[in-house]
Amino acid sequence: MTETCFKFMINVYGILFRTQNLSEVKNFCYKMWSKILRNRISLQDFIFVKEVRMGTYSDKVPPPPGVAVAARRILQDESDEPQYGERHPITPEEFLANRQLRIDASYYITRVLIPPPERIFNLVGADVRAWYDEMPKTTTVDEQDPLVHSPRKCAPVHANGFKIDEHFQSARCLTCSCTAWDGKLDLAFARRVMPTFR
């Protein structure tokens, strides 16, 4: 269980027992799911902490994710071996190093957050999964950093790129972020607008 899941369950059950009103529970769920979908929750709240028992897993099947992460850390530093039964955070270093990677919010919501309250609410006839399915969802586009995506710096083309913006050059002026041709405003126009520009 993650910190977000724990907080979600405590609040959902607290609202249910305090108000006995499913519409208030539904409103809270909408707010929480919207925050997650908009990436407004700390990464630390999404980290799973699992018990690791090194040396007890079969070689015939892939190990659980916590064991795989612990094994990679041991390869980097032999003294970083977790104790038998120690709870170990599952945090792949690649995820922390690459700021472009995002948590799969819909997977997290449908597979981690919804099942625990769904078991309880199904007993009273409320379908939590249907609440999520019918919830209005918005899609946001991340704001680009104009210095990183300047037309003079060609971004490397990745076969599995994460954002469509990485495949196009910027049409914004590096100075003022106005729409510009080839990433720079006409020099004469810029001198009229900003007399100190040289």
Automatic annotation (TrEMBL):
Keyword presence, GTP-binding: no
Coiled coil: none
GO biological process: double-strand break repair via homologous recombination; error-prone translesion synthesis
Annotated GO CC locations: nucleus; zeta DNA polymerase complex
EC numbers for this chain: 2.7.7.7
Assigned keywords, A-Z: DNA-directed DNA polymerase, Nucleotidyltransferase, Transferase
Molecular-function GO term, any one: DNA-directed DNA polymerase activity
InterPro entries associated with the record: DNA/RNA_pol_sf, DNA_pol_B_thumb, PolZ_Rev3
The UniProt record lists the keyword Nucleotidyltransferase: yes
PANTHER family, sorted: DNA POLYMERASE ZETA CATALYTIC SUBUNIT
Protein name as catalogued: DNA-directed DNA polymerase
Organism the protein comes from: Boletus edulis BED1
Lineage, uppermost ranks: Eukaryota, Fungi, Dikarya, Basidiomycota, Agaricomycotina
